[in-house]
Amino acid sequence: MYLDNNASTATDPEIVDVLHRVTSSTSVANPHSSEHAYGWRADDLIQESKEIVADFLNSLPEEIYFTSGATESNNLAIIGLAMSAHDKKVRRNEIIVSPTEHKCVLNSANFVTHIFNEFKIIEAPINKNGIVDIQKLERLISDKTLLVSIMAVNNEIGVIQPLKEIGTLCKKQGAIFHTDAAQGAYIDLDVVENNIDTLSLSGHNVYAPNGIGVLYVNDDISTRPSPIIYGGNQQNGLRSGTLSPALCISMAKALEKISKKRVDESVHLSKMREIFLQTLKGNNIDYVINGCMKNRHPGNLNIQITGIDSSTLITRLQPNLAISTGSACNSGAVQGSYVLKEIGLSTKAIESSIRIGFGRFNTMDESVRAAKMISDEINRLKTV
């Protein structure tokens, strides 16, 4: 049973059909081959994909760039912007990030400070639930701020950040607002309404295949990212490399489907989460929820189970149940969650925490069975 949908979602069968149809077509070629009809048809698919993604974000199609995933998009947004600011001798030199960002954001920001001495990183203060303190953030953003990067939805504890408020603060001070929205498909990602300047998405988090992502870049920002990949100047020179029409249209169609199913699917995910917790309680399992439940990804749950080592619990559940101790962003390394540490949890609490991620293809019955499996294993561990 797979309940690790915050790490990666299964590709939707409808999207698999799209992928297969385009991949197996003999009339689709390199979309950058502009001299024949085969290339034109491939390019038409790319343009259609951009239009669908743009509609999802309320942006312009020419503001959409395809990448290999959110990690590349975040690198391009942060490193590319710093390179551009350095070359233009922009006087802004501060990059604000929350300490609970995905590793690719934190490491990109750190890399910038290593290659350019003028930049420095400032941490955005967060509360015990992992949500940015808006009043404190307002005092940090100034005319020295180049970039503020705050993820839309946390990949470990699922909390949703106040994007519109953050975007408004950035706009007021002329700072660029970037958000890693890989987990944000179930919230409003209207880039105009939220004053978002750059935004990253990843296919494998929205029921599309691995290996495809999106970077939105607002055409109106004064300092635009410089390329970090060089080649044939595809995608207006910002991101070189031959695009896959099949992957691009798969990503677009996946977002289109989420847009249509968002409300009903959010209710379904929330109900599975609720019945999971009810079943744990019914089996006399004591737990503490990490992060707030009010503003949270509908399918995310992160809980402490006192007296239980989470890694041991997960191992004993194999191969019957897939859950995790936290993020899958550390190349398979089992480490204590820095996200849980940043919201004030003790080492003991972190080591007893598990993450459950409900997804589109899970059922109420699976939610109940998973909770019973976990309860039974916890009770066995307590008798050891």
Can I get a quick summary?
The chain is an alpha/beta fold. The protein has helices at 13-23, 37-57, 70-87, 103-115, 134-140, 163-173, 245-282, 310-316, 338-342, 347-351, 364-383, and strands at 64-67, 94-97, 120-123, 145-149, 176-180, 198-202, 213-217, 288-289, 300-304, 353-357.
Topology of this structure?
Blueprint: H1 13-23, H2 37-57, E1 64-67, H3 70-87, E2 94-97, H4 103-115, E3 120-123, H5 134-140, E4 145-149, H6 163-173, E5 176-180, E6 198-202, E7 213-217, H7 245-282, E8 288-289, E9 300-304, H8 310-316, H9 338-342, H10 347-351, E10 353-357, H11 364-383
Parallel strand pairs: 2-3, 2-4, 4-5, 5-6
Antiparallel strand pairs: 1-7, 6-7, 8-9, 9-10
Helix pairs in contact: 1-7, 2-7, 3-4, 7-11
Structure write-up:
This protein is of the alpha/beta class. It has two domains: about 240 residues, Aspartate Aminotransferase, domain 2; about 120 residues, Aspartate Aminotransferase, domain 1, CATH 3.90.1150.10. It is built from eleven helices and ten strands. Strands 1-7-6-5-4-2-3 form a seven-stranded mixed sheet, with helices on both faces. Strands 8-9-10 form a three-stranded antiparallel sheet. Helix 6 links the parallel strand 4 and strand 5. Helix 2 packs parallel to helix 7. The two termini are about 25 Å apart. The model has no long low-confidence stretch (mean pLDDT about 95).
